[in-house]
Design goal:
Keywords: ATP-binding, Helicase, Hydrolase, Nucleotide-binding. This protein is mainly beta. Helices cover about 5% and strands about 50% of the residues. The chain has a six-stranded antiparallel sheet, with no helix packed on it. The chain is flat, with a radius of gyration of 13 Å.
């Protein structure tokens, strides 16, 4: 279900309800049409991922349930 909203910074964004990749709970994914940013956030586990839709580069990420050492190979 996508919903179009207008954010306070005057850019149009769409919002989708998705499953959180960390806890599986209900998360929100916002797509900013003006700057190609995708923001996924979960209030249940405090997950956050902001990435550029054009390049796929991660702009900001926060997942408190993951320790950096656990991600290193």
């Amino acid at each position: 279900m996508a919903k179009t909203t207008s954010a306070s910074f005057a850019s149009v964004t769409t919002m989708q309800r998705v499953n959180c990749p960390t806890c599986g709970g209900s998360a929100e994914r916002y797509r900013s049409l003006s700057d190609s940013l995708v923001r996924t956030q979960c209030d249940r586990c405090d997950y956050l991922m902001v990435l550029c839709e054009d390049t796929g580069r991660v702009i900001e990420a926060y997942a408190p349930s993951f320790a950096p050492a656990a991600l290193a190979s």
